[in-house]
Amino acid sequence: xxxxxxxxxxxxxxxxxxxxxxASSDRLAYGYDNSRxxxxxxxxxxxxxxxxxxxxxxxxxxxKIPLVARGRGTGTTGATVPVSGGIVLSTExxxxxxxxxxxxxxxxxxxxxxxxxxxxxxxxxxxxxxxxPTSATVCTVGGNLAYNSxxxxxxxxxxxxxxxxxxxxxxxxxxxxxxxxxxxxxxVGYDLTRLLIGSEGTxxxxxxxxxKLTPLPxxxxxxxAIYADIDSAxxxxxxxxxxxxxxxxxxxxxxxxxxxxxxxxxxxxPERAGALLMIEVDGPTSAMVEMVDAVxxxxxxxxxxxxxxxxxxxxxxxxxxxxxxxxxxxxxxAPKKINEDVVVPVxxxxxxxxxxxxxxxQHEVTIVNFGHAGNGNIHVNLLVDPDNPRQLxxxxxxxxxxxxxxxxxxxxxxxxxxxxxxxREFVAREIAPPTLRLMQDIxxxxxxxxxxxxxxxxxxxPAP
Length: 464
Fold this sequence. Notes:
This protein is α+β, with helices and mostly antiparallel strands. It has helices at residues 5-15, 24-27, 50-63, 115-123, 141-147, 154-157, 192-196, 230-241, 255-264, 288-299, 313-324, 326-333, 349-363, 389-408, 427-430, 433-446, and strands at residues 20-21, 43-45, 67-70, 87-90, 97-101, 106-109, 127-128, 164-171, 176-180, 204-212, 214-215, 219-227, 249-254, 275-283, 304-310, 338-343, 367-372, 377-382. A 7-stranded antiparallel beta sheet has the order 15-12-14-13-17-18-16, sandwiched between helices. α9 (255-264) crosses α12.
């Protein structure tokens, strides 16, 4: 929709001309994310404070103008694409760390602070914030909270929901709301903090977040286990997760991914490698030998081909080089690949992977799998060219079957990428109509005019 001239002038007066983009050439860069979706916003604004966001939302509420909050656009589901036009509110200039309290193990930040900036600031006091998405150097805390994006460390330390104490936000009516506490315990009222996290900006716009910090471990060890087949690797995952030493990362790569890595890197991998696990263990130095030994024993299954442990920084870098070679390899082969992040119970990983192999053959689509095996979060990559109509049709049919497979195994459609635009029509398969209606009713309470990130998260057709 077009933005009324009086609204544009009011926002320029409120924020300053340098905080509002009106030219279409300037607005274009804020109309897409890391998906293939794109739409041109009518206006882009850059607030610097909670008060400015409140005034922007009140303006949009009054005139029923769609408003999409955005961090750095690293999401993969089109969740920040302004398909209804309206205004994109970029939080990239709200990048201040407002408070660090080591004694209370917390940090208060604005939503535009990058994940890496949080880690650096926390580390200076001997702490870290557990969520660590792959894009940590550029993604923002606001985006992490919007998607509940976690990364490898979630297997031991949890997601943003478990590591956020409270929020300050603005609802769709322009009212300030505060959720949670500054303490690790508190049961007064409903848990609105966890409700807002993962809501993709459809309930309120987060303006401040109180993060729960965790002390840095004394030391860490990295292990690389290579297996002859997927079954041996997934059996090892179950064994590792069933013993007391919980790894801080347990990453999985399948045989197709290993073949790609071998083609683009100098990593020495056995020719018969069918799967690979990257395992990290952290904790006190005095117990590390015993912890690594326990995990190594659990990782030792019949199909184990090699098990390496890195102790120095150079050795750790050499082991992780294998995993880090994968993303460039995938981009070279299929720059517009379809990447889904499904989750199944750990015990169902073998059934998921064997099912994916069958679907790849049936639909003649190359599928490469990797991800966070410790909590069953597998990234399913369909290597297709969406500009090729035949390949796209095959991929869409295959993806439909992938989601049916995942749900049939008791899984969920997304672990950390979110729903956005690209998955919303599948949501009704996972969530029953009464529950879906309740969620939509809750959304109406927070945002009665449906201005906050409209046409996202829920299917177009209302639940019956």
